[in-house]
């Protein structure tokens, strides 16, 4: 019998902050935040005034590059970028746009836009143009239609396994579409996964789609419309192939207790899902902020209502580089979930710590939306033998590297937990059997980051010699009983 032993990775700490590409947010009615210091500071120089969608991107040092509401692009100086008008997103599209850097081309960025009648499209920005302020050099390249009986306002993105590029995902009617972005450009042929809720009328296309930071889970919020099905779905995502599978409907609408979902977000440790919705019941309509424990054997029954309030805005949720989740409620404040990894437990006192007036926006107002980002920017994973998920290994020579979306590495230190270290980017190491704490320390742009994982190494299986009995028949042929081995 051949034994297979597992090498088990358990993420201990998320001290490794998101890279600073997520440092600047512009959203709502000229509202903005600067996270480059590690904590959000309100800024009032933003030019967009949007009901829902917007997106931003910063460089590896946290300096703003550009931002957009999906229709107009503004450069780092808050002026309209050359060629930056006429994009085919929409201010009332849930996730109107998302920005993706082109791998191996530091000056080139793609702006994906989505809006029901305009479809899914992409635009190309060249930051070497206009003295470094950038220009839109290709505009509104068509990817797919979203018309007919359906619609979609959903966009999310994550790193392809092995860090070779990015997946950009949307949902339309009853299928997920994953477009790859690599050094070769944007693939015009998506990976299509036909699974999940059938959403038809454009209003059902509203609501967020979000990949988890590690790119393994996918959450989708659908608004229902009269008697048409909406709901809240959780899926597995294969970031190697781009396929979506294993649907779990956390909520399926019913007429007695209808919930119209809008915002979704994962905790930094990928184990908790947050969602916002408008809920109808006997007392009228309430907005709800919900928490679900994804490690619970019954995710549906783990539901905890963090807050409920009157009004018409359930609002977007967005993870920040400080590992807190922010929530819009159409006010001069953002609410904040300070401890999103904490699952509510009345017995132990564990609580996500939700603060309604968490961040003052300096007189500006939030609306429905917050800027989406490549979710992998909130995750930096250690990779062993080319993978960053659970694998099966016997004791062997292991190749270590890391997956991140940052820039130049100032320094790197691997501590293998067995008394040995390495300053190589891609070291090779062999462990003796046992359990070790593997630590990676990176310094990027003068900012230190640390992540740790526990590694368990099992011994190689031992092969025993077997004695076989030889039986000769009268013809001189020999037979061996292999069951003895």
Automatic annotation (TrEMBL):
Organism domain of life: Bacteria
Keyword Signal: yes
UniProt-listed Pfam families: PKD_4 (PF18911)
Organism: Moheibacter sediminis
Protein name: PKD domain-containing protein
Annotated keywords: Signal
Leader sequence residues: 1-18
Domain PKD stretches: 396-443
Matching InterPro entries: Ig-like_fold (IPR013783), N2O_reductase_N (IPR011045), PKD_dom (IPR000601), PKD_dom_sf (IPR035986), WD40/YVTN_repeat-like_dom_sf (IPR015943)
Coiled coil spans: none
């Amino acid at each position: 019998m051949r034994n297979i032993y597992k090498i088990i990775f358990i993420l201990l700490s998320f001290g490794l902050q998101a890279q600073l590409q997520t440092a600047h947010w512009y959203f709502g009615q000229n509202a903005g935040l600067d996270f480059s210091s590690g904590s959000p500071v309100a800024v009032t120089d933003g030019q967009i005034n949007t009901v829902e969608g917007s997106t931003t991107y910063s460089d590896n040092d946290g300096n703003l590059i550009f931002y957009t509401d999906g229709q107009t692009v503004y450069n780092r100086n808050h002026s309209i970028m050359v060629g930056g008008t006429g994009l085919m997103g929409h201010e009332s599209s849930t996730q109107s746009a998302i920005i993706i850097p082109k791998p191996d081309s530091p000056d080139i960025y793609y702006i994906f836009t989505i809006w029901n009648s305009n479809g899914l499209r992409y635009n190309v920005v060249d930051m070497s143009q206009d003295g470094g302020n950038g220009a839109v050099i290709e505009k509104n390249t068509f990817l797919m239609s979203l018309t007919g009986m359906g619609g979609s306002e959903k966009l999310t993105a994550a790193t392809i396994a092995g860090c070779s590029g990015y997946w950009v995902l949307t949902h339309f009617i009853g299928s997920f579409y994953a477009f790859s972005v690599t050094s070769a450009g944007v693939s015009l042929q998506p990976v299509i996964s036909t699974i999940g809720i059938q959403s038809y009328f454009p209003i059902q296309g509203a609501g967020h789609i979000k990949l988890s930071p590690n790119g393994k889970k996918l959450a989708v919020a659908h608004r229902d419309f009269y008697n048409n099905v909406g709901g809240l779905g959780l899926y597995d995502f294969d970031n190697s192939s781009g396929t979506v599978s294993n649907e779990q409907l956390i909520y399926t609408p019913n007429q007695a207790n209808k919930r119209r979902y809008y915002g979704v977000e994962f905790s930094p440790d990928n184990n908790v899902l947050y969602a916002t919705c408008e809920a109808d019941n006997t007392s009228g309509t309430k907005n709800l902020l919900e928490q679900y424990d994804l490690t619970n054997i019954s995710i549906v029954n783990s539901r905890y209502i963090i807050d409920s309030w009157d009004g018409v805005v359930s609002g977007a949720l967005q993870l920040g580089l400080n590992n807190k989740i922010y929530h819009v409620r159409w006010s001069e404040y953002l609410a904040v979930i300070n401890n999103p990894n904490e699952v509510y437990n009345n017995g132990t006192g564990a609580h996500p710590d939700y603060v309604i007036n968490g961040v003052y926006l300096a007189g500006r107002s939030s609306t429905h939306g917050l800027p989406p980002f490549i979710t992998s920017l909130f995750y930096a994973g250690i990779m062993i033998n080319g993978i960053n998920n659970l694998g099966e290994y016997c004791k062997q020579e292991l190749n270590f590297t890391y997956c991140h979306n940052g820039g130049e590495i100032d320094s790197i230190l691997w501590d293998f937990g067995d008394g040995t270290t390495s300053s190589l980017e891609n070291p090779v190491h062999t462990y003796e059997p046992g359990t070790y704490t593997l630590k990676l320390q990176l310094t990027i742009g003068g900012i230190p980051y640390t992540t740790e994982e526990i590694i368990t190494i099992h011994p190689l299986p031992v092969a025993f010699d077997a004695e076989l009995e030889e039986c000769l028949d009268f013809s001189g042929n020999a037979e061996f009983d292999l069951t003895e081995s």
